[in-house]
């Protein structure tokens, strides 16, 4: 018996860690020499398996990680991930001792959040990065509130190791968005400069996520925070970025054929009979559905999958656990054969699947279902 039979039973995700390494080297190729990668591994590493991805990153020298939640951060520590772990989002301050116990870095979300921490009775200082809001208007203390910012840098209980911001339209090529992004960059660096001239230490500074790297690559920062491009895909299909990287997708989505049959002209397929055969055809059911994160709104969109190195079209409604293919032109197809639904070939690239389901790859990949085992490619 093959070792991974249980995991390759019905539907699964395969990750190629060599591609992850390749993508990291591609990013390192275009960022300034003294800038380091802070790998964004939130949401189970965008659906790729948090610990497998982080371990590989550790092995190839990445020492800085960003996650969204306290639980993700603790998972990394429990799996002996080395280095700095920054929580990008909200942590309830009733759990502040966990941040200390696990040696985590918390984002200062705004002045109020900092004040609450400074009023607590802590056994040691909390490691933090201060977030500055330069226009995203989500979290971060406003760059205009320089007096509040100055106070934060002098508060007790805080060990300030970094200062950062986030761009809200770095992927856009519209003139307005580009000038907006340059304003964000200006506000950020001017704020850093003001703090420094007052003798305050902002620590490590960072502002670029994936598209910040691709479109604004030469900023003098200590870190960049790539997420989606590390996994080898762009957010959208038609991205024309200032810098081109040769990315290799890390993730493939696979499932098995469960049943093959013939239907006659006039017969329908799946719920609500949205597909009706125009002639006799051979069809095959696949053991994956929208509960696995494969979007239901790809039903009847001419979406293709790969079987026996040929494309087959999805027909009829995608169900919770299953979907149906037209395999009329594919020979020798039987139950147990493997179908690839997301992968490297053009028609099944994550960018294409995301586009056809009206979203971005970030959402598509991070929503792949928790019942899919994730295995490393051998
Ligand atoms: C998610 C996130 C990133 C990574 O974004 P990508 O577009 O996937 O590179 C970087 N920084 C912050 C603050 C984020 O929330």
Molecular structure report:
The protein is of the alpha/beta class and 378 residues long. Helix content is 27%, strand content 23%. The protein is built from eleven helices and 20 strands. Strands 3, 4, 5, 6, 7, 8, 9 and 10 form an eight-stranded parallel β-sheet that branches. A six-stranded antiparallel barrel has the order 12-15-18-17-16-19. A two-stranded parallel ribbon has the order 2-11. Strand 16 and strand 17 (310-315) form a beta hairpin. The longest helix has 23 residues, at 175-197. The chain is elongated. The two termini are 16 Å apart. The mean pLDDT is 97. The structure holds pyridoxal-5'-phosphate.
Short characterization:
The chain is 27% helix and 23% strand.
β-sheet strand percentage: 15-25%
**Integer-rounded radius of gyration:** 24 Å
Shape: elongated
Terminal CA distance reads 16 Å
Structural class: alpha/beta
Q: Main β-sheet: number of strands, strand sense, barrel status? A: 8 strands, parallel
Enumerate the spans where pLDDT stays under 50 for 5 or more consecutive residues.
none
How many E strands?
Answer: 20
Q: Which whole number gives the mean pLDDT?
A: 97
Put simply, the count of helices is: 11
**What ligand molecules are bound, each kind once?**
pyridoxal-5'-phosphate
